[in-house]
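Training component of the fellowship. As part of building independent skills, the fellow (R.M.) carried out the full modelling exercise for a liganded target. The chosen ligand was adenosine-5'-triphosphate. The inputs are recorded below so that the supervisory panel can assess the work.
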Amino acid sequence: MNAPDFLQASILIVDDDKAHLLAVEEILGRIGARIVTASSGEEALKRVLEEDFAAILMDVQMPGIDGFTAARMIRERTRSRSTPIIFMTAAHEDLAAMFQSYRAGAVDYLVKPLIPEVVRSKLAFFVGQHDMNKMLSAELAERALTEQRLRASEQNLRALADRLQSVREEERIHIAREIHDELGQALTGLKYDIAALVKASAETPESVPTKAQSCNQAIDRIINAVRRISSGLRPEVLDEIGLHAAVEWQAREFSRRTGIRCSVEISPNFTDPDKQRSTAIFRIFQELLTNVARHANATRVNVTLADAESLALKVEDNGRGIQESEFESPRSLGFLGLRERVLAFGGSIDVKGHEGKGTSVSVCIPLTAQQPVFHE
Ligand SMILES: Nc1ncnc2c1ncn2[C@@H]1O[C@H](COP(=O)(O)OP(=O)(O)OP(=O)(O)O)[C@@H](O)[C@H]1O
Ligand SMILES: [Mg+2]
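Fellow's submitted model of the complex:
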C-alpha cells in the first residue's frame, strides 16, 4: 500500500557507533520511510519531542543515558507513549538483558550483527501500522467534521423553519392591517360618496356629475390600494415587467419612501432570467434594501446587476458598515434566508463591511440549468 505524502512515516535510529548508524540507515533506506538518526540517548529524547515516529530502533549500550533508560523516559511522555521501540544489542546470549528490554517498553529485540531482510521486514510492518493509524485518524477527523457540518446545517434549517413560520404570521398580520387601513377606509369613503350621489340625484341633479366623479376617484384609489397590497405579497411586478424593470421600480419606490438616493446600473443587453432566478434575485434585492433602510444609516445606495457568466447583484451603501459578527450570527435570519436562497442555485454571497464607510453585499447565481433545491 502506498501511503499519501502527508502520511510519510519517520523512523528514528539511535546508536553511538557512527559506522553502525550508517549501516542501519543504509539497510532501511529502501522501505520508503524518512530516516532520522541520533547518536545518544539524550539526542533521541530531543528528537521524540520534536516529531512522531513510526518506530524507534535503539542500541542498548550507549555512554550517558543507556537504551533502557532512554526507552523508559520515551514511554513516560504522552507524545511517544505508544511509539514502538526495537532494541539492538550484541548480547545475544544475555536473556536477562532481553527481559529488561521488554520491561523498559520494547516491542521487539534485534541481535547484532543485524540481518538486513529481518530488519527491513520488521520495520516495514511498523511503518504500515503507522500509515494505517494516520489514515484512520484522518478519516475519523473528516467524519467528525462532516458531523459537525451536518449539525450546523440542521440548526440552520430549524432556525429557517421557525423564521418561515414567523414570517408567515407577520405576513398575515401585515395583510390584515393593510386591508383594514387601506381598503376599509376607502370602501367606507366610497359608501358615503354613493349615499351622497343617491341623495343628489333626488335633490340636486346638477351636482350629480361632480359626485359621480368623486365616486370614480374613490374607486381608482381602491384599485391602486389593491395593487399596492398585492405587489407587496407576491412580486407580481416581475410577471408584468420582468426583473430588469422591477429592480429599477423597486429602487425608485425605496428612494421615495426612505429619502435615500438609490442608483441602479444594469449591464447593457441584460436578459431577464427564468422565473425562479428572477424571484430569488428580486427577493434578495428587497431584503438588502430593507436592511439598508433599517440598519445602515446611509444616504446613498448603489446597485449593479449583470448577467455575464452568472447573475450578479451588488448592493452597496455608504452607512455605518456591517460587522462580521452581525452577518455570521445564526440569529441573523435575514442573511440565513439569503444564503439558503442563493445556495439553492449553487450560488454564493459575499458580505463586506467597512466601519463608518458602508456595506457591500454581492450575490452570484449561476445561469446554468441547475434546478433550485427549494424555491417559493
Ligand atoms: N446594510 C447594513 N448596514 C449595517 N448593518 C447591517 C446592514 N444589513 C444588516 N445589518 C446588520 O446585520 C444584522 C443581520 O441582518 P439580517 O437581515 O440577517 O437581520 P435583521 O434585518 O436584523 O432581521 P430580519 O430577520 O428581519 O431580516 C442586522 O440586525 C444589522 O445589525
Ligand atoms: Mg434583514
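The panel noted the following from the submitted structure. The mean pLDDT is 86. Residues 287, 290-291, 334 surround magnesium ion (ligand 2) (CB under 6 Å).
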